[in-house]
Amino acid sequence: QVQLQESGPGLVKPSETLSLTCTVSGGSITTNYASWTWIRQPPGKELERMGAIGYSGSTYYSPTLKSRTSISRDTSKNQFTLQLSSVTPEDTAVYYCARWWALTAAYDYWGQGTQVTVSS
């Protein structure tokens, strides 16, 4: 059973960089067909896919967030990390990490989500 757990600060000041880590257990982040994704849900809004890092290390970013987003990984720790720069209160959301499984074209494992609030 693959498990994902988000970690990071729950409060970030405007203009700072938000940094979250997803720790994966029960499976390797280098497993073929897997893409490790960051998704967020602002209050009252729909889920938004922010970006992903594939099993080979390739990355994808949402066009609307690309200029502020960086996703990296540490294979020795089986973790992947989100950095979102120049945050504003509009970046307040619940942030999730999830696994996209290409063979089923679906997100099959999710973290529980972590609330991040951007406020001074």
For the terminal residues, how far apart are their CA atoms? 39 Å
- How many H/I helical runs? 0
Protein structure class: mainly beta
Order of helices and strands: EEEEEEEEEEE
Radius of gyration: 14 Å
Q: Tell me the strand percentage band.
A: over 45%
What characteristic shape results from the CA principal axes? globular
Q: Summarize the amount of helix as a percent range.
A: under 10%
Name the poorly predicted regions.
none
Overall pLDDT, averaged?
97
Report the sheet with the most strands, covering strand number, pairing sense and barrel closure.
Answer: 7 strands, mixed
Instruction: Give a count of the beta strands, DSSP E runs of length 2 or more.
Output: 11
Structural write-up:
This protein is mainly beta and 120 residues long. Strands 2, 4, 5, 6, 9, 10 and 11 form a seven-stranded mixed beta sheet that branches. The protein is 0% helix and 53% strand. It is globular and about 40 Å long.
Task: List the defining traits of the structure above.
seven-stranded mixed β-sheet, 120 residues, mainly beta, 11 strands, globular, four-stranded antiparallel β-sheet
